[in-house]
Amino acid sequence: MSIALTPDDFHHHRVLKDGSFLVLALDRPEGTVVCKIAKEDNAKIQREIDRIRQLKERYIHLAKWMPASLGDGIIQGGVLGGRLFSLQEFVSGPTLSQWMQTSAEPHPGPETKSIIGGVVSHLLDHFEDHRSIDNAQGWFDGMIRAAFTRIVDIPLINSVARMPEILINGKRRRGLRDSVERIVTSDTFDRLIRKSPAISDLGHWNFHG
Q: pTM, whole model, 2 decimals?
């Protein structure tokens, strides 16, 4: 659905994230929505809009848990004139990343395990879809280990990776190497691989906490 926004539509907003995209919580007559704006590359956000639409059309299990898309268009005038934007449902509350970073649990407790279990459960429902590709045996394990190997080549990360424990916001956490190993050798991870080693036939995509 094509929507036109002008500078007047941005009087009431707050910035959620300012990186490669500008992400706002935008107050509109129908309520607060998320507005994601291309800062330089309209094509990049267009690919994201198309991919979200394709995921919702092809994978019913993922669609049930994805925020509603509310339209997109080009900003008319102002400093962001000509930039492509997309609107989606605003889900109130902390992101998964924020919750994990502020959790008082020194190690994963019942609440954390419940959240992670729910995410894995949704993924497994998705993998039951016959349109997933059954060609990713070991893919998850290999990609995680390869990514970890790459980042520990960075001197500062290498120093952190050698620590048996890390102090984050005053809380002791397991070291990076131990955490990665625990993930790829966990029962939950093994279940994910054995249940249906699959990736989307739409290619690469990911969710951000």
A: 0.60
